[in-house]
Write a structure and sequence with these properties.
single chain, alpha+beta, eight-stranded antiparallel β-barrel, 3 helices, 42% strand, elongated
Length: 167
């Protein structure tokens, strides 16, 4: 504010003109702030991996069995993964965990799953038995990203190979 007052003193403006100039500068400042804010939003690390996915099927490595679950969805963002059965009949539940990349983005790690409660987690750890219907066979699972083209996502761990379709 001192800068603006000093500037106005230098150019010797009338009271009404000064008020108009101050108003114009404030409006210009607000417009610039609004234009710059979207640039601060966190962009996906890999938009071909991050997003909303429907689990079409997963094949367990131990026995080669193909599982085709109904209504299982993955929501993957920069640091968070949500897995849930939506409007399904099995009662598998909703879980939220950590998500990250390793090996220069060629692998994805999912870990620290908690039972979901409302818009957050319940602070209750998910069990391995609760996670298996989602194709997750360990409390911290590293998946090799086999295919990620924005329409299909194939992830492979020591436990299973997951085939997901963009939702």
């Amino acid at each position: 504010m001192k800068i603006i007052k000093g500037f106005m003193k230098m150019i010797q403006l009338s009271g009404k003109t000064k008020a108009t100039l101050v108003y114009a500068l404030l409006v210009l400042g607000l417009i610039l702030a609004c234009l710059l804010m979207p640039g601060c939003a966190k962009q996906p690390v890999d938009s071909s991996v991050e997003g909303f996915w429907k689990l079409e099927r997963f094949t367990t490595k131990e026995d080669g069995a193909v599982h085709e679950p109904e209504r299982i969805f993955y929501g993957i963002t920069r640091y968070v993964v949500e897995i849930a059965e939506r409007q399904g009949t099995q009662g598998y539940g909703d879980f939220i965990g950590r998500f990250g990349y390793t090996d220069e983005g060629r692998e994805a790690v999912m870990s620290e799953f908690k039972v979901r409660a409302g818009t957050s987690d319940s602070k209750k750890d998910a069990t391995l038995e609760q996670l298996k219907p989602f194709g997750i066979g360990a409390m911290e699972t590293t998946f090799r990203i086999v295919k990620a083209d924005g329409k299909a996502l194939v992830l492979e761990s020591d436990y299973a190979k997951l085939e997901l379709k963009r939702y």
